[in-house]
Amino acid sequence: MKPFFISTAIPYVNAPGHLGHALEFIQADVIARYQRILGSKVFFLTGTDENSLKNVRAAEDLGISPKELVDKNSAKFQALKQPLNLSWDDFIRTTEERHFKGAQKLWLACKADIYKKTYAGLYCVGCEAFYEEDEIKDGRCPEHQVALERIEEENYFFKLSKYEKQLLELIESDKLRIVPASRKNEVVSFIRTGLKDICISRSAERAKGWGVQVPGDSSQIIWVWFDALPNYINALGYGEDGPRFQEFWEGEGTKLHVIGKGIIRFHAVYWSAMLLSAKLALPDTIFVHGYITVAGKKMSKSLGNVVDPFPLIEKYGADAVRYFLLREIPSAEDGDFTQEKFEERYNADLANGLGNLVARVLGLALEIKMYSPGDFVHATVQEALLKEAIEKAHKASSFAVEEFKFNDALLAIWELIAFCNQYIDQHHPWEASPNNWGGSKEKKIVGDLAATLQEIGNLLSPFLPDTAKEIVKECTLESEVRSNLFPRIWPSS
Fold first, then answer.
1. How many domains does the chain have?
2. Residue 367 and residue 239 share a domain
3. Taking the complete model, does pTM exceed 0.90, yes or no?
4. Which amino acids are annotated catalytic?
5. Which domain holds residue 374?
């Protein structure tokens, strides 16, 4: 079993999670489930970033302590696991002792590349990062479009510039693979402009004492990114040099980060340089997804258009939400959410497509009454055209998942679903003569469709795990009462 490590970014907990966070969790979950099916030994990690200055300020605004805020909001992120049927193996919080221990250990491992100086610069609390004058317009953060703060204090710096050539070679050669290519080009262009050393601490006074203390200097708190990025190895036991760290990070397995486009620089450049400095292994691949917009506008608390995933899940079910995000949102680009788009996709693909096929096939099987449950669930495909369609769907969906193109993978599966519905229409077994109903022709058609239905369930299992299980369960024919997988949504008016 080849080790396969996969992580999401760890979101800030200054506010509860939204649909954009759900998208990243679901994308990573699909990859983790797919790799488990292939036989990989998977470690799927997520967590929350709790030591940021924005958390301190959010707590102040609410009149509570930072600990109260992060405990409350971290719990809300963790609470997404069951409703969305996520399969992560560990959830790390950066306020945990294991994280503090690992973050300070990494600082010491990078000590040869760390120095102290006085610095003045423009800082975005939202990004938790300094920006150069040539990176901004009108004094505003390019990511959050808010006015930047001018900060001047004595801090520690990391020699990022030392690793410029090495990083460029690693990324251009795809030894550190960045997907999609457009994001790789973005990182390469950033490095080619020349890397400058980065500030990696802030005064304990400005941080209000919140965060990971710089080893040996109680007046300084580790910069949130230099603190947060090691979460990936700290969850594996880096602080104790544990066996899981050796197996999943330093070993010969795969290491994959799934992140949003706004934090690519921190992962591809800063994190990689930190690992090089500490003489640790680098990730193999960084997959970068886009954002969810709402009616064409970026999801934002200030705009009041943040979509809470919990009501959607409660109303439509986890698999319907998973399907929309994976099918409608291009995996590496921005995609739009509206209630109308959600319901249109649900009706067209889930109710009229998959749900209709399951109901038709199992309805025919029960009407013919020709199989015992065991015979039906172990049916095999005989028809050459169906075999060809199944093989095509398997190849196309597997290739698409390997390339992180989840929408293309689902499209390939739905082409098989459409083919099966057309197959029923073309062969119309219900038109057999009453005296011959349930004869050899009908048995062959329904048997082939039953076997194909189970193949569809297998294909869907990384994407819609509950639905895949339900299809297999329905194929046992243990009950003549059929469930409606995806009831059609009717207009409220």
1. 2
2. no
3. yes
4. 18, 21, 124, 127, 141, 144, 298, 301
5. 339-474
